[in-house]
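Sat 14:20. Reprocessing the chain from the morning session after the first attempt stalled halfway. Input below, unchanged.
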Amino acid sequence: MQEAFTDKIAGLIKLLSFKEGLLNCEAELNKAYGHIDKGIKKTAERFISVFCEHALADTDYTEVQKDAVGYQSLADYIHTNNLSLPYIIKCITYFIWTDKVTEGYFINKIKDNSLITLLNRLDFLLKEHRQLC
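Finished this time. Tokens:
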């Protein structure tokens, strides 16, 4: 049990290592006026790969869909709430699975800063966790 938890924490820390690269990707997306560079796709693919390798997915993301009701968008909801760790994981899972049906959805979550906002919150929560240990 402890080993699985440690692996998940390691996976979350690895996801944080993508934050700078995703910020650079966002700048590239803005320069490209919607043209998606191969480097951006590769960064997104590596991020998703790490997420899956560490078995972080939580496919019970119906609350993610419901909670955005009353907000202009899911991005709006994400940007205005202090989300919990399980909720962050559900959001990322939702982004990944929705991209399987709606091509480009994950890249759009980079463009609208939703993924960066989730990673910033994740970073805060992990730092808080380290201080408690």
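Residues 2-132 form one domain.
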